[in-house]
Predict the 3D structure of the following.
Amino acid sequence: MLAARTTSPSPLRLASAGSPEPVSDEVASNLATTAMVEGLRRSDPAVTRRFFEMYSGRVERTLRRLLGPTDDMEDLVHDVFVDALEAIDKLREPAALPGWVTGIAVITAKRRLQKQYRRRWLSLSPTGYLPEPPSTPGDVEARAAFQSVHQILNLLRPEDKIAVLLYRIDGLTVDDASQVMGISSSTFKRRLRRGERHLLKLAKRSTTLRIWLGDEGRLS
Amino acid sequence: MTDPVGRLLETYDEGLEQEPHRPTNINRLEQRVRETLRERSTQRKQTVRRLQLGLALAASFALISVGVAYKLGQGPDEETVAVVPAGEWLSTTTGSAQERTFDDGSSVRVESASSARVQFVAAKGGLVHLDRGSVRVKVKHREGSTWRVAAGPYEVEAIGTEFVVDWQAGRDKPLRVSVTEGTVAVRGPAFRGTRFVSAHQVVEVTSQETAGVEPKTLSVDELLPEAVTPEEPGGARARVADSAKWRELEAAGKYVEALKAAERRGLSRIYQSGSGDDLIVLARVAGNAKRPDVARDALLACRARFAGTSHAAMAAFRLGQSAKGGQAAQWFSTYLKEQPNGGLAREALGRLIEAHRAAGDTVSARAAAERYLKSYPDGPHATLARQALNR
Protein backbone atom coordinates (compact mmCIF):
# COMPACT_ATOMS: atom_id res chain seq x y z
CA MET A 1 0.00 0.00 0.00
CA LEU A 2 1.38 3.35 -0.98
CA ALA A 3 -0.06 5.57 1.68
CA ALA A 4 -0.46 9.32 1.38
CA ARG A 5 2.48 11.48 2.41
CA THR A 6 2.56 13.23 5.71
CA THR A 7 0.27 16.21 5.36
CA SER A 8 2.45 18.83 7.01
CA PRO A 9 5.49 19.78 4.95
CA SER A 10 8.63 18.56 6.62
CA PRO A 11 11.43 21.05 7.15
CA LEU A 12 13.80 18.18 6.34
CA ARG A 13 12.47 17.67 2.82
CA LEU A 14 14.89 17.74 -0.06
CA ALA A 15 14.64 20.59 -2.52
CA SER A 16 14.36 18.21 -5.47
CA ALA A 17 10.86 17.27 -4.45
CA GLY A 18 9.68 20.85 -4.23
CA SER A 19 7.52 22.87 -6.60
CA PRO A 20 8.81 23.64 -10.07
CA GLU A 21 10.96 26.74 -10.41
CA PRO A 22 11.10 29.17 -13.30
CA VAL A 23 13.09 27.84 -16.22
CA SER A 24 15.60 30.68 -16.10
CA ASP A 25 16.40 29.93 -12.44
CA GLU A 26 16.76 26.24 -13.23
CA VAL A 27 19.15 26.97 -16.07
CA ALA A 28 21.18 29.30 -13.88
CA SER A 29 21.25 26.68 -11.13
CA ASN A 30 22.45 24.02 -13.55
CA LEU A 31 25.18 26.31 -14.84
CA ALA A 32 26.32 27.05 -11.30
CA THR A 33 26.31 23.35 -10.44
CA THR A 34 28.25 22.50 -13.60
CA ALA A 35 30.80 25.19 -12.78
CA MET A 36 31.13 23.75 -9.28
CA VAL A 37 31.77 20.26 -10.63
CA GLU A 38 34.44 21.61 -12.96
CA GLY A 39 36.06 23.44 -10.06
CA LEU A 40 36.00 20.28 -7.94
CA ARG A 41 37.63 18.34 -10.75
CA ARG A 42 40.38 20.96 -10.88
CA SER A 43 40.71 20.71 -7.07
CA ASP A 44 40.03 24.43 -6.85
CA PRO A 45 40.29 25.23 -3.10
CA ALA A 46 37.64 27.96 -3.17
CA VAL A 47 35.13 25.79 -5.03
CA THR A 48 35.81 22.86 -2.75
CA ARG A 49 35.21 25.05 0.25
CA ARG A 50 31.93 26.20 -1.28
CA PHE A 51 31.00 22.58 -1.93
CA PHE A 52 31.43 21.77 1.76
CA GLU A 53 29.39 24.76 2.79
CA MET A 54 26.52 24.01 0.42
CA TYR A 55 26.26 20.26 0.80
CA SER A 56 27.29 19.41 4.35
CA GLY A 57 23.81 20.28 5.73
CA ARG A 58 22.09 18.22 3.05
CA VAL A 59 24.33 15.22 3.67
CA GLU A 60 23.93 15.42 7.42
CA ARG A 61 20.15 15.63 7.20
CA THR A 62 19.95 12.61 4.91
CA LEU A 63 22.16 10.57 7.19
CA ARG A 64 20.32 11.69 10.28
CA ARG A 65 16.91 10.72 8.95
CA LEU A 66 18.08 7.35 7.69
CA LEU A 67 20.16 6.43 10.72
CA GLY A 68 18.58 8.38 13.55
CA PRO A 69 20.65 9.95 16.31
CA THR A 70 24.20 8.60 16.20
CA ASP A 71 27.45 9.57 17.88
CA ASP A 72 29.59 9.19 14.77
CA MET A 73 27.61 11.51 12.50
CA GLU A 74 30.71 13.62 11.87
CA ASP A 75 32.64 10.56 10.68
CA LEU A 76 29.82 9.53 8.36
CA VAL A 77 29.56 13.01 6.81
CA HIS A 78 33.34 12.91 6.36
CA ASP A 79 33.09 9.56 4.59
CA VAL A 80 30.44 10.89 2.21
CA PHE A 81 32.59 13.87 1.18
CA VAL A 82 35.71 11.76 0.76
CA ASP A 83 33.82 9.34 -1.50
CA ALA A 84 32.26 12.20 -3.43
CA LEU A 85 35.52 14.04 -4.07
CA GLU A 86 37.32 10.86 -5.07
CA ALA A 87 34.56 9.94 -7.52
CA ILE A 88 33.81 13.42 -8.88
CA ASP A 89 35.43 12.56 -12.22
CA LYS A 90 32.91 9.76 -12.67
CA LEU A 91 29.90 12.07 -12.44
CA ARG A 92 28.44 12.01 -15.96
CA GLU A 93 25.99 14.90 -15.69
CA PRO A 94 27.36 17.77 -13.61
CA ALA A 95 23.84 19.20 -13.19
CA ALA A 96 22.89 16.04 -11.26
CA LEU A 97 25.37 16.85 -8.49
CA PRO A 98 22.77 17.34 -5.69
CA GLY A 99 21.03 14.01 -6.27
CA TRP A 100 24.40 12.34 -6.79
CA VAL A 101 25.70 13.54 -3.42
CA THR A 102 22.43 12.44 -1.75
CA GLY A 103 22.88 9.05 -3.37
CA ILE A 104 26.34 8.73 -1.84
CA ALA A 105 24.91 9.64 1.54
CA VAL A 106 22.21 6.97 1.10
CA ILE A 107 24.84 4.37 0.20
CA THR A 108 26.90 5.36 3.26
CA ALA A 109 23.82 5.06 5.47
CA LYS A 110 22.91 1.74 3.93
CA ARG A 111 26.35 0.34 4.71
CA ARG A 112 25.93 1.37 8.33
CA LEU A 113 22.41 -0.05 8.52
CA GLN A 114 23.49 -3.34 7.01
CA LYS A 115 26.22 -3.59 9.57
CA GLN A 116 23.72 -2.93 12.36
CA TYR A 117 21.19 -5.33 10.83
CA ARG A 118 23.71 -8.17 10.79
CA ARG A 119 24.30 -7.60 14.48
CA ARG A 120 20.66 -7.12 15.45
CA TRP A 121 20.41 -10.48 17.21
CA LEU A 122 22.74 -9.17 19.87
CA SER A 123 20.17 -6.57 20.99
CA LEU A 124 16.97 -8.60 20.62
CA SER A 125 15.06 -9.65 23.73
CA PRO A 126 14.62 -13.37 24.42
CA THR A 127 10.95 -13.19 23.44
CA GLY A 128 11.53 -11.26 20.27
CA TYR A 129 9.36 -8.38 21.53
CA LEU A 130 10.69 -4.86 21.84
CA PRO A 131 11.73 -3.74 25.30
CA GLU A 132 9.34 -1.07 26.58
CA PRO A 133 10.83 2.19 27.82
CA PRO A 134 9.28 3.63 31.02
CA SER A 135 5.95 5.25 30.27
CA THR A 136 5.75 8.84 31.48
CA PRO A 137 3.40 11.70 30.56
CA GLY A 138 4.05 14.76 28.41
CA ASP A 139 7.32 15.16 26.47
CA VAL A 140 8.60 12.03 28.06
CA GLU A 141 5.85 10.06 26.34
CA ALA A 142 6.63 11.68 23.01
CA ARG A 143 10.28 10.83 23.42
CA ALA A 144 9.43 7.25 24.33
CA ALA A 145 7.24 7.00 21.23
CA PHE A 146 10.05 8.34 19.09
CA GLN A 147 12.51 5.83 20.57
CA SER A 148 10.08 3.02 19.94
CA VAL A 149 9.66 3.96 16.28
CA HIS A 150 13.39 4.37 15.97
CA GLN A 151 13.96 0.87 17.37
CA ILE A 152 11.31 -0.60 15.12
CA LEU A 153 12.85 1.07 12.07
CA ASN A 154 16.20 -0.45 13.00
CA LEU A 155 14.60 -3.90 12.86
CA LEU A 156 13.55 -3.43 9.25
CA ARG A 157 15.74 -4.57 6.44
CA PRO A 158 18.10 -1.68 5.57
CA GLU A 159 16.85 -1.32 2.01
CA ASP A 160 13.21 -1.37 3.21
CA LYS A 161 13.89 1.22 5.89
CA ILE A 162 15.60 3.53 3.41
CA ALA A 163 12.74 3.19 0.95
CA VAL A 164 10.18 4.05 3.60
CA LEU A 165 12.09 7.05 4.94
CA LEU A 166 13.01 8.51 1.55
CA TYR A 167 9.42 8.34 0.37
CA ARG A 168 7.56 9.09 3.58
CA ILE A 169 9.76 11.68 5.26
CA ASP A 170 12.04 13.10 2.60
CA GLY A 171 9.07 13.33 0.26
CA LEU A 172 10.91 12.00 -2.78
CA THR A 173 8.85 10.70 -5.65
CA VAL A 174 9.10 7.03 -6.51
CA ASP A 175 11.28 7.84 -9.48
CA ASP A 176 13.61 10.14 -7.54
CA ALA A 177 13.92 7.74 -4.60
CA SER A 178 14.55 4.72 -6.81
CA GLN A 179 17.18 6.71 -8.70
CA VAL A 180 18.93 7.74 -5.49
CA MET A 181 18.89 4.12 -4.33
CA GLY A 182 20.10 2.91 -7.69
CA ILE A 183 17.19 0.49 -8.18
CA SER A 184 14.19 0.25 -10.50
CA SER A 185 10.86 1.85 -9.61
CA SER A 186 9.16 -1.51 -9.27
CA THR A 187 11.82 -2.77 -6.93
CA PHE A 188 11.52 0.41 -4.93
CA LYS A 189 7.76 -0.01 -4.62
CA ARG A 190 8.16 -3.59 -3.52
CA ARG A 191 10.60 -2.59 -0.80
CA LEU A 192 8.42 0.29 0.28
CA ARG A 193 5.35 -1.92 0.74
CA ARG A 194 7.32 -4.58 2.57
CA GLY A 195 8.87 -1.96 4.88
CA GLU A 196 5.53 -0.39 5.70
CA ARG A 197 3.92 -3.75 6.46
CA HIS A 198 6.77 -4.76 8.72
CA LEU A 199 6.78 -1.37 10.47
CA LEU A 200 3.07 -1.61 11.23
CA LYS A 201 3.33 -5.18 12.40
CA LEU A 202 6.07 -4.39 14.88
CA ALA A 203 4.35 -1.18 16.05
CA LYS A 204 1.23 -3.16 17.02
CA ARG A 205 3.37 -5.13 19.48
CA SER A 206 4.50 -1.93 21.23
CA THR A 207 2.40 -0.88 24.25
CA THR A 208 4.12 2.51 24.26
CA LEU A 209 3.05 3.24 20.73
CA ARG A 210 -0.49 2.02 21.40
CA ILE A 211 -0.70 4.38 24.39
CA TRP A 212 0.94 7.20 22.45
CA LEU A 213 -1.50 6.92 19.61
CA GLY A 214 -4.40 6.65 22.16
CA ASP A 215 -6.24 3.93 20.38
CA GLU A 216 -5.10 0.52 19.28
CA GLY A 217 -7.53 0.70 16.42
CA ARG A 218 -5.63 3.59 14.90
CA LEU A 219 -2.81 1.21 14.10
CA SER A 220 -5.14 -1.14 12.30
CA MET B 1 -5.49 9.91 11.75
CA THR B 2 -6.26 7.36 9.10
CA ASP B 3 -2.66 6.56 8.04
CA PRO B 4 -1.01 4.63 10.87
CA VAL B 5 2.36 4.47 9.04
CA GLY B 6 2.26 8.19 8.40
CA ARG B 7 1.44 8.83 12.06
CA LEU B 8 4.32 6.66 13.22
CA LEU B 9 6.80 8.35 10.91
CA GLU B 10 5.54 11.80 11.88
CA THR B 11 6.24 10.84 15.47
CA TYR B 12 9.71 9.72 14.41
CA ASP B 13 10.36 12.91 12.40
CA GLU B 14 9.25 15.20 15.22
CA GLY B 15 11.26 13.24 17.78
CA LEU B 16 14.31 13.42 15.57
CA GLU B 17 13.99 17.19 15.46
CA GLN B 18 13.94 17.29 19.24
CA GLU B 19 17.08 15.19 19.58
CA PRO B 20 20.12 17.29 20.41
CA HIS B 21 22.78 17.28 17.76
CA ARG B 22 25.83 19.32 16.92
CA PRO B 23 25.86 21.04 13.57
CA THR B 24 28.71 20.06 11.30
CA ASN B 25 31.87 22.09 11.76
CA ILE B 26 32.72 22.96 8.15
CA ASN B 27 36.36 23.86 8.85
CA ARG B 28 37.07 20.66 10.71
CA LEU B 29 35.20 18.59 8.12
CA GLU B 30 37.12 20.15 5.24
CA GLN B 31 40.46 19.66 7.00
CA ARG B 32 39.73 16.01 7.81
CA VAL B 33 38.53 15.27 4.29
CA ARG B 34 41.65 16.84 2.75
CA GLU B 35 43.93 14.85 5.06
CA THR B 36 42.12 11.63 4.23
CA LEU B 37 42.33 12.31 0.51
CA ARG B 38 46.07 12.96 0.83
CA GLU B 39 46.60 9.76 2.81
CA ARG B 40 44.62 7.71 0.31
CA SER B 41 46.55 9.24 -2.58
CA THR B 42 49.83 8.31 -0.91
CA GLN B 43 48.57 4.82 -0.20
CA ARG B 44 47.50 4.41 -3.80
CA LYS B 45 50.93 5.51 -5.03
CA GLN B 46 52.59 3.08 -2.64
CA THR B 47 50.27 0.35 -3.83
CA VAL B 48 51.10 1.16 -7.44
CA ARG B 49 54.82 1.13 -6.59
CA ARG B 50 54.42 -2.21 -4.84
CA LEU B 51 52.50 -3.54 -7.81
CA GLN B 52 55.15 -2.26 -10.20
CA LEU B 53 57.85 -3.78 -8.03
CA GLY B 54 55.92 -7.01 -7.90
CA LEU B 55 55.45 -6.99 -11.65
CA ALA B 56 59.13 -6.19 -12.16
CA LEU B 57 60.10 -9.06 -9.85
CA ALA B 58 57.66 -11.35 -11.60
CA ALA B 59 59.04 -10.30 -14.99
CA SER B 60 62.60 -10.83 -13.76
CA PHE B 61 61.66 -14.22 -12.39
CA ALA B 62 60.01 -15.09 -15.69
CA LEU B 63 63.08 -14.00 -17.64
CA ILE B 64 65.36 -15.97 -15.36
CA SER B 65 63.06 -18.96 -15.66
CA VAL B 66 63.05 -18.66 -19.44
CA GLY B 67 66.83 -18.34 -19.38
CA VAL B 68 67.19 -21.39 -17.16
CA ALA B 69 64.72 -23.31 -19.31
CA TYR B 70 66.60 -22.27 -22.43
CA LYS B 71 69.89 -23.28 -20.83
CA LEU B 72 68.44 -26.61 -19.77
CA GLY B 73 66.97 -27.04 -23.23
CA GLN B 74 70.37 -26.50 -24.74
CA GLY B 75 71.42 -29.86 -23.45
CA PRO B 76 74.68 -30.72 -21.78
CA ASP B 77 76.43 -28.33 -19.45
CA GLU B 78 79.69 -26.88 -20.57
CA GLU B 79 82.80 -26.05 -18.70
CA THR B 80 85.18 -23.52 -20.19
CA VAL B 81 88.71 -23.16 -18.91
CA ALA B 82 91.22 -20.60 -20.10
CA VAL B 83 94.21 -22.90 -20.28
CA VAL B 84 94.28 -26.66 -20.27
CA PRO B 85 97.10 -28.69 -18.76
CA ALA B 86 99.06 -30.53 -21.44
CA GLY B 87 98.10 -34.13 -21.94
CA GLU B 88 94.92 -33.97 -19.93
CA TRP B 89 92.36 -36.62 -20.77
CA LEU B 90 88.86 -35.28 -21.15
CA SER B 91 86.09 -37.83 -20.80
CA THR B 92 82.42 -37.06 -20.96
CA THR B 93 79.42 -39.17 -20.15
CA THR B 94 76.11 -39.22 -21.99
CA GLY B 95 74.40 -35.85 -21.81
CA SER B 96 77.47 -33.88 -20.83
CA ALA B 97 80.17 -32.03 -22.73
CA GLN B 98 83.37 -30.19 -21.95
CA GLU B 99 84.97 -27.31 -23.75
CA ARG B 100 88.52 -26.02 -23.38
CA THR B 101 89.92 -22.76 -24.66
CA PHE B 102 93.62 -22.36 -25.29
CA ASP B 103 96.14 -19.54 -25.27
CA ASP B 104 96.04 -19.08 -29.02
CA GLY B 105 92.27 -18.54 -28.90
CA SER B 106 91.45 -21.96 -30.28
CA SER B 107 88.97 -24.21 -28.51
CA VAL B 108 88.14 -27.89 -28.35
CA ARG B 109 84.75 -29.15 -27.32
CA VAL B 110 84.55 -32.78 -26.32
CA GLU B 111 80.98 -33.82 -27.05
CA SER B 112 78.73 -36.19 -25.17
CA ALA B 113 80.05 -39.71 -24.43
CA SER B 114 83.51 -38.98 -25.78
CA SER B 115 87.08 -39.35 -24.65
CA ALA B 116 90.02 -37.31 -25.92
CA ARG B 117 93.45 -36.12 -24.82
CA VAL B 118 94.66 -32.68 -25.77
CA GLN B 119 98.29 -31.71 -26.10
CA PHE B 120 98.96 -28.07 -26.61
CA VAL B 121 102.14 -26.08 -27.14
CA ALA B 122 101.56 -22.40 -27.69
CA ALA B 123 104.26 -22.03 -30.34
CA LYS B 124 103.29 -25.18 -32.22
CA GLY B 125 99.58 -25.60 -31.79
CA GLY B 126 97.53 -28.50 -30.54
CA LEU B 127 97.09 -32.18 -31.03
CA VAL B 128 93.87 -33.90 -30.04
CA HIS B 129 93.97 -37.67 -29.56
CA LEU B 130 90.37 -38.72 -30.09
CA ASP B 131 89.88 -42.09 -28.44
CA ARG B 132 86.14 -42.30 -29.04
CA GLY B 133 83.26 -39.99 -29.69
CA SER B 134 83.27 -36.57 -31.19
CA VAL B 135 85.24 -33.35 -30.87
CA ARG B 136 84.46 -29.93 -32.31
CA VAL B 137 87.57 -27.86 -32.97
CA LYS B 138 87.59 -24.11 -33.55
CA VAL B 139 91.01 -22.96 -34.67
CA LYS B 140 92.39 -19.45 -34.51
CA HIS B 141 94.97 -19.74 -37.17
CA ARG B 142 98.45 -18.51 -36.37
CA GLU B 143 101.49 -18.82 -38.56
CA GLY B 144 103.87 -21.46 -37.36
CA SER B 145 101.25 -23.39 -35.46
CA THR B 146 98.69 -25.93 -36.47
CA TRP B 147 95.97 -28.04 -34.95
CA ARG B 148 95.47 -31.72 -35.68
CA VAL B 149 93.06 -34.38 -34.56
CA ALA B 150 94.33 -37.95 -34.47
CA ALA B 151 91.49 -40.45 -34.70
CA GLY B 152 92.58 -44.05 -35.04
CA PRO B 153 94.74 -44.32 -38.19
CA TYR B 154 93.48 -40.98 -39.45
CA GLU B 155 94.71 -37.47 -39.01
CA VAL B 156 92.69 -34.31 -39.57
CA GLU B 157 94.65 -31.12 -39.89
CA ALA B 158 92.98 -27.78 -39.41
CA ILE B 159 93.58 -25.41 -42.24
CA GLY B 160 90.34 -23.55 -41.79
CA THR B 161 88.67 -22.67 -38.56
CA GLU B 162 85.87 -24.97 -37.43
CA PHE B 163 85.23 -28.67 -37.86
CA VAL B 164 83.98 -31.79 -36.11
CA VAL B 165 85.74 -35.14 -36.00
CA ASP B 166 83.68 -38.14 -34.94
CA TRP B 167 85.47 -41.44 -34.34
CA GLN B 168 83.98 -44.77 -33.21
CA ALA B 169 86.30 -47.69 -33.94
CA GLY B 170 83.57 -50.36 -33.95
CA ARG B 171 81.15 -48.48 -36.18
CA ASP B 172 80.43 -49.23 -39.86
CA LYS B 173 81.70 -45.79 -40.68
CA PRO B 174 84.21 -45.20 -37.94
CA LEU B 175 85.37 -41.77 -39.12
CA ARG B 176 83.22 -38.81 -39.92
CA VAL B 177 84.64 -35.34 -40.52
CA SER B 178 82.35 -32.38 -41.09
CA VAL B 179 83.56 -28.85 -41.70
CA THR B 180 81.57 -25.81 -40.68
CA GLU B 181 84.03 -23.16 -41.77
CA GLY B 182 87.24 -23.23 -43.73
CA THR B 183 89.05 -26.35 -44.87
CA VAL B 184 90.67 -29.37 -43.24
CA ALA B 185 93.14 -31.87 -44.60
CA VAL B 186 92.33 -35.49 -43.82
CA ARG B 187 94.99 -38.14 -44.14
CA GLY B 188 94.84 -41.85 -43.57
CA PRO B 189 94.65 -45.30 -45.13
CA ALA B 190 91.43 -44.61 -46.96
CA PHE B 191 92.96 -41.75 -48.89
CA ARG B 192 95.79 -41.49 -51.34
CA GLY B 193 97.73 -38.64 -49.91
CA THR B 194 95.57 -35.90 -48.47
CA ARG B 195 91.83 -35.41 -48.71
CA PHE B 196 90.67 -31.81 -48.32
CA VAL B 197 87.25 -31.15 -46.90
CA SER B 198 85.79 -27.67 -47.22
CA ALA B 199 83.01 -25.83 -45.46
CA HIS B 200 79.62 -27.55 -45.47
CA GLN B 201 81.16 -30.80 -46.63
CA VAL B 202 81.29 -34.13 -44.83
CA VAL B 203 83.61 -37.06 -45.41
CA GLU B 204 82.97 -40.51 -44.01
CA VAL B 205 85.25 -43.53 -44.02
CA THR B 206 83.94 -47.09 -43.95
CA SER B 207 85.39 -49.81 -41.78
CA GLN B 208 86.56 -51.72 -44.89
CA GLU B 209 88.70 -48.78 -45.89
CA THR B 210 90.17 -48.66 -42.41
CA ALA B 211 90.67 -52.39 -41.83
CA GLY B 212 94.12 -53.79 -41.32
CA VAL B 213 95.73 -50.51 -40.55
CA GLU B 214 97.27 -49.86 -37.20
CA PRO B 215 96.29 -46.59 -35.61
CA LYS B 216 98.91 -43.97 -35.95
CA THR B 217 100.01 -42.22 -32.80
CA LEU B 218 101.27 -38.68 -33.14
CA SER B 219 103.31 -36.73 -30.64
CA VAL B 220 103.18 -33.04 -30.07
CA ASP B 221 106.64 -32.71 -31.56
CA GLU B 222 105.18 -33.67 -34.90
CA LEU B 223 103.17 -30.50 -34.94
CA LEU B 224 105.84 -28.42 -36.64
CA PRO B 225 104.74 -27.06 -40.01
CA GLU B 226 107.62 -28.90 -41.62
CA ALA B 227 106.03 -32.15 -40.51
CA VAL B 228 103.17 -31.65 -42.92
CA THR B 229 103.44 -34.32 -45.50
CA PRO B 230 103.61 -32.88 -49.01
CA GLU B 231 101.41 -34.53 -51.53
CA GLU B 232 103.13 -37.11 -53.55
CA PRO B 233 103.41 -36.09 -57.15
CA GLY B 234 101.27 -37.95 -59.60
CA GLY B 235 98.41 -37.40 -61.97
CA ALA B 236 99.68 -33.93 -62.78
CA ARG B 237 98.70 -34.19 -66.41
CA ALA B 238 95.11 -35.02 -65.57
CA ARG B 239 94.92 -32.14 -63.07
CA VAL B 240 96.17 -29.72 -65.73
CA ALA B 241 93.43 -30.91 -68.05
CA ASP B 242 90.78 -30.56 -65.36
CA SER B 243 91.82 -27.07 -64.45
CA ALA B 244 92.22 -25.86 -67.99
CA LYS B 245 88.86 -24.22 -68.31
CA TRP B 246 88.89 -22.04 -65.22
CA ARG B 247 92.54 -21.23 -65.81
CA GLU B 248 91.73 -20.11 -69.36
CA LEU B 249 89.02 -17.84 -68.02
CA GLU B 250 91.48 -16.48 -65.47
CA ALA B 251 94.03 -15.80 -68.18
CA ALA B 252 91.37 -13.88 -70.06
CA GLY B 253 90.78 -11.71 -67.00
CA LYS B 254 87.28 -13.16 -66.46
CA TYR B 255 87.71 -13.73 -62.75
CA VAL B 256 84.05 -14.14 -61.77
CA GLU B 257 83.45 -16.62 -64.54
CA ALA B 258 86.69 -18.37 -63.69
CA LEU B 259 85.65 -18.76 -60.09
CA LYS B 260 82.25 -20.10 -61.11
CA ALA B 261 83.96 -22.62 -63.36
CA ALA B 262 86.23 -23.61 -60.48
CA GLU B 263 83.23 -24.04 -58.21
CA ARG B 264 81.49 -26.20 -60.81
CA ARG B 265 84.55 -28.39 -60.93
CA GLY B 266 84.64 -28.45 -57.13
CA LEU B 267 86.77 -26.21 -54.97
CA SER B 268 87.60 -29.03 -52.61
CA ARG B 269 88.90 -31.05 -55.54
CA ILE B 270 91.17 -28.18 -56.51
CA TYR B 271 92.27 -27.76 -52.89
CA GLN B 272 93.24 -31.41 -52.68
CA SER B 273 94.42 -32.14 -56.19
CA GLY B 274 95.36 -28.83 -57.79
CA SER B 275 99.00 -27.86 -58.24
CA GLY B 276 100.69 -25.22 -56.12
CA ASP B 277 100.36 -22.82 -59.02
CA ASP B 278 96.64 -23.68 -59.34
CA LEU B 279 96.06 -22.77 -55.74
CA ILE B 280 97.96 -19.47 -55.98
CA VAL B 281 96.05 -18.56 -59.13
CA LEU B 282 92.76 -19.66 -57.61
CA ALA B 283 93.47 -17.35 -54.67
CA ARG B 284 94.09 -14.48 -57.09
CA VAL B 285 90.88 -15.28 -58.98
CA ALA B 286 88.88 -15.44 -55.77
CA GLY B 287 90.39 -12.16 -54.55
CA ASN B 288 89.40 -10.42 -57.77
CA ALA B 289 85.94 -11.99 -57.61
CA LYS B 290 85.44 -10.62 -54.09
CA ARG B 291 85.53 -14.06 -52.44
CA PRO B 292 88.19 -13.69 -49.73
CA ASP B 293 87.04 -16.89 -48.04
CA VAL B 294 87.91 -18.97 -51.09
CA ALA B 295 91.19 -17.10 -51.52
CA ARG B 296 92.20 -17.80 -47.94
CA ASP B 297 91.24 -21.50 -48.15
CA ALA B 298 93.21 -21.89 -51.37
CA LEU B 299 96.30 -20.29 -49.88
CA LEU B 300 96.04 -22.35 -46.69
CA ALA B 301 95.64 -25.50 -48.75
CA CYS B 302 98.70 -24.50 -50.72
CA ARG B 303 100.69 -24.05 -47.55
CA ALA B 304 99.49 -27.36 -46.16
CA ARG B 305 100.16 -29.36 -49.28
CA PHE B 306 103.29 -27.68 -50.59
CA ALA B 307 105.06 -26.71 -47.42
CA GLY B 308 108.66 -25.64 -47.96
CA THR B 309 108.14 -24.80 -51.60
CA SER B 310 108.13 -21.40 -53.28
CA HIS B 311 104.39 -21.78 -53.71
CA ALA B 312 103.91 -22.11 -49.96
CA ALA B 313 106.05 -19.00 -49.42
CA MET B 314 104.05 -17.15 -52.03
CA ALA B 315 100.88 -18.26 -50.25
CA ALA B 316 102.27 -16.82 -47.00
CA PHE B 317 102.91 -13.50 -48.73
CA ARG B 318 99.38 -13.42 -50.16
CA LEU B 319 97.93 -14.30 -46.77
CA GLY B 320 99.92 -11.40 -45.28
CA GLN B 321 98.46 -9.07 -47.89
CA SER B 322 94.92 -9.98 -46.88
CA ALA B 323 95.59 -9.97 -43.12
CA LYS B 324 96.00 -7.02 -40.76
CA GLY B 325 98.33 -6.01 -37.96
CA GLY B 326 100.09 -8.74 -36.05
CA GLN B 327 98.69 -11.53 -38.19
CA ALA B 328 99.96 -9.86 -41.34
CA ALA B 329 103.37 -9.44 -39.68
CA GLN B 330 103.46 -13.18 -38.93
CA TRP B 331 102.74 -14.09 -42.56
CA PHE B 332 105.36 -11.69 -43.96
CA SER B 333 107.86 -13.00 -41.43
CA THR B 334 107.05 -16.52 -42.64
CA TYR B 335 107.70 -15.57 -46.24
CA LEU B 336 111.02 -13.94 -45.31
CA LYS B 337 111.96 -16.99 -43.28
CA GLU B 338 111.13 -19.36 -46.13
CA GLN B 339 112.36 -17.16 -49.00
CA PRO B 340 114.93 -14.67 -47.58
CA ASN B 341 116.20 -13.89 -51.06
CA GLY B 342 112.92 -14.45 -52.89
CA GLY B 343 111.52 -12.12 -55.48
CA LEU B 344 109.11 -10.66 -52.95
CA ALA B 345 111.60 -10.36 -50.07
CA ARG B 346 112.04 -6.58 -50.34
CA GLU B 347 108.28 -6.03 -50.55
CA ALA B 348 107.65 -8.46 -47.70
CA LEU B 349 110.18 -6.69 -45.47
CA GLY B 350 108.67 -3.29 -46.23
CA ARG B 351 105.21 -4.57 -45.51
CA LEU B 352 106.50 -6.15 -42.33
CA ILE B 353 107.42 -2.64 -41.08
CA GLU B 354 103.92 -1.44 -41.94
CA ALA B 355 102.29 -4.40 -40.19
CA HIS B 356 104.31 -3.97 -37.00
CA ARG B 357 103.50 -0.26 -36.90
CA ALA B 358 99.83 -1.01 -37.47
CA ALA B 359 99.90 -3.48 -34.60
CA GLY B 360 101.59 -0.88 -32.36
CA ASP B 361 104.68 -3.03 -32.04
CA THR B 362 107.33 -0.28 -32.32
CA VAL B 363 110.20 -2.46 -31.19
CA SER B 364 109.59 -5.00 -33.93
CA ALA B 365 108.92 -2.19 -36.39
CA ARG B 366 112.34 -0.64 -35.59
CA ALA B 367 114.05 -4.01 -35.98
CA ALA B 368 112.41 -4.58 -39.36
CA ALA B 369 113.24 -1.00 -40.41
CA GLU B 370 116.93 -1.43 -39.60
CA ARG B 371 116.97 -4.67 -41.54
CA TYR B 372 115.24 -3.02 -44.47
CA LEU B 373 117.55 -0.01 -44.64
CA LYS B 374 120.55 -2.29 -44.39
CA SER B 375 119.40 -4.39 -47.37
CA TYR B 376 117.47 -1.82 -49.39
CA PRO B 377 118.56 1.73 -48.42
CA ASP B 378 116.90 3.12 -51.53
CA GLY B 379 113.88 0.83 -51.55
CA PRO B 380 110.28 2.03 -51.73
CA HIS B 381 109.83 1.59 -47.93
CA ALA B 382 113.08 3.38 -47.03
CA THR B 383 111.32 6.57 -46.00
CA LEU B 384 108.88 4.62 -43.84
CA ALA B 385 111.77 2.69 -42.31
CA ARG B 386 113.53 5.92 -41.37
CA GLN B 387 110.36 7.25 -39.84
CA ALA B 388 110.11 4.09 -37.76
CA LEU B 389 113.69 4.76 -36.59
CA ASN B 390 112.98 8.48 -36.03
CA ARG B 391 115.69 9.46 -38.40
The radius of gyration of chain A is 19 Å. Chain A touches chain B through 52 residues (CB under 8 Å). Confidence is low (pLDDT under 50) at residues 1-22, 124-137 of chain A.
